[in-house]
DNA sequence: AAATTTTTCGCGTATAATGCGAATTATGTT
DNA sequence: AACATAATTCGCATTATACGCGAAAAATTT
């Protein structure tokens, strides 16, 4: 178990629910001296990861914004997926959204979103950088079968209730069976599990048919229920194309 | 001079020009052992700031994307400025862009960008998170008069040529005089200094009329040359409004 | 201008990071 | 599939460096 850098622990305190911290509060939270808290904060400010706000408080800093742009321009998965996403947009019904997502800390994060031209994105819950539940919605569900068993055991132990409520089985065995079935089919369709008026269709992105990278998904209007099954195989093909692009260069 | 956290130094290696690193290359670059490099990388991966890519290499990770969204939703300056920006968009000629920017490491970073509805943003160089030159363009220039003198001395020593080319004076004294003049007027207008077909108009954002927070600017089409001077005072008023909003709560 | 709070600095001590080399795991090849 | 090679982790002794303390300095408020 790694991950015991004091300075980075400070950064982890800055969450959506608590985005503003003073050095003193940091010292309390991490149980270190105030001088150390100031030292940590100074390092993070120097790196641009934090920036001073009013009243001796600190918030996330400009380096984040710059790094985010760097990801948009250089991230291999993003770069490999983007043209494919643009390509498959034309096969989707209008008012659809295409998502590129990946796991992060027991949640699913939308990494990139493609919407057809004029459509207001606000109506779909998946927003770039917004953590989404791991067991609800096609985008999330399709990732589960490709997780290492130890992760699945831990997840099931911690979230058995959620897993049941998501229709993924009553106990461990049923859970595994549900996952096997998803893996066999190769894609997942869910009906208004996240947004009431939307259907999600998702396929996994894998490295060498094994390690999970993320998922590729359509979010289409409820009214397009008939088109949904056709889009599953289409997404699988697109996902494979992304995988190939990723492997080249 | 603080800022000597080894783990964070690793993060600083990941730039637009060199966005992919292996542990071994990190070890070389920082002149540490490979095991240490692996340790640092593991810490950053655990924090989500890095993520593994193909072939034992690493790239910036999902935490960046999540943090970026957090900034969008919670950053005090951003939150204070956004409604004001929306408000002053209606006074700008069509095909205009409004920018919220701040300094970062001797560059200027666009923090938020507001374009009128249908207009394609690609035609303006200022992109969210893209570092822009510190001495060219109204957005940048208007910040200079509010920098501490020691910063200005350092900048002038390092970039005397750029400063001259930007029309900010031949030597140190002329430079200071140019800055004083900008401060006196309260806003800056520049003509096609960044984009050939654009005029920039910018006003500073200050904390208690002193410390520089950033700048607020219009980017308007070249054809609107006559409107530009009217927009200067308008931006100053808007900037003051942002400052007040920021001070409340 | 005085008082109070916030932030930085200097320093001795002890903790925790470091490099080494070996063990383990992953990857690629015949 | 078995081997060879590379990539990554682990264990440990050493010493560097991050730590807390208290004081000094700076900033903020009264």
TrEMBL record, chains A, B:
GO annotation (BP), single: negative regulation of DNA-templated transcription
Residues annotated as domain IclR-ED: 63-248
Residue ranges of every copy of the HTH iclR-type domain listed in the record: 1-62
InterPro entries: GAF-like_dom_sf, HTH_MetabolicPath_Reg, Tscrpt_reg_IclR_C, Tscrpt_reg_IclR_N, WH-like_DNA-bd_sf, WH_DNA-bd_sf
PROSITE patterns (UniProt xref): HTH_ICLR (PS51077), ICLR_ED (PS51078)
Keywords assigned by UniProt, alphabetized: DNA-binding, Transcription, Transcription regulation
SMART domains: HTH_ICLR
Pfam families for the chain: HTH_IclR, IclR_C
Gene Ontology MF, one: DNA binding
PANTHER family assigned: HELIX-TURN-HELIX TRANSCRIPTIONAL REGULATOR, ICLR FAMILY, HTH-TYPE TRANSCRIPTIONAL REPRESSOR ALLR
Protein name stated in the entry: Helix-turn-helix domain-containing protein
């Amino acid at each position: 178990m790694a991950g015991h850098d004091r300075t980075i622990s400070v950064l982890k305190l800055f969450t959506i629910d608590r985005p503003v911290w003073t050095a003193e509060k940091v010292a309390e939270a991490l149980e270190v001296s105030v001088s150390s808290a100031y030292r940590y904060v100074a390092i993070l400010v120097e790196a641009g990861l934090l920036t001073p706000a009013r009243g001796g408080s600190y918030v996330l800093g400009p380096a984040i914004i710059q790094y985010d742009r760097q990801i948009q321009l250089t991230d291999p998965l993003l770069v490999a997926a983007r043209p494919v996403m643009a390509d498959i947009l034309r096969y989707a019904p209008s008012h659809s959204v295409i998502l590129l997502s990946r796991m992060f800390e027991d949640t699913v994060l939308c990494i990139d979103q493609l919407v057809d031209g004029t459509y207001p994105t606000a109506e779909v819950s998946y927003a770039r950088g917004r953590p989404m539940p791991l067991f609800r919605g096609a985008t999330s569900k399709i990732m589960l079968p490709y997780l290492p068993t130890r992760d699945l055991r831990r997840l099931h132990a911690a979230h058995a209730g959620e897993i049941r409520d998501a229709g993924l089985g009553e106990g461990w065995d049923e859970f595994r069976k549900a996952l096997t079935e998803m893996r066999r089919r190769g894609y997942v369709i869910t009906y208004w599990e996240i947004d009431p008026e939307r259907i999600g269709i998702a396929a996994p992105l894998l490295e060498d048919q094994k390690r999970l990278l993320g998922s590729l998904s359509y979010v289409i209007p409820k009214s397009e229920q008939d088109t949904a099954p056709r889009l599953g195989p289409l997404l699988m093909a697109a996902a494979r194309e992304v995988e190939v692009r990723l492997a080249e260069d």
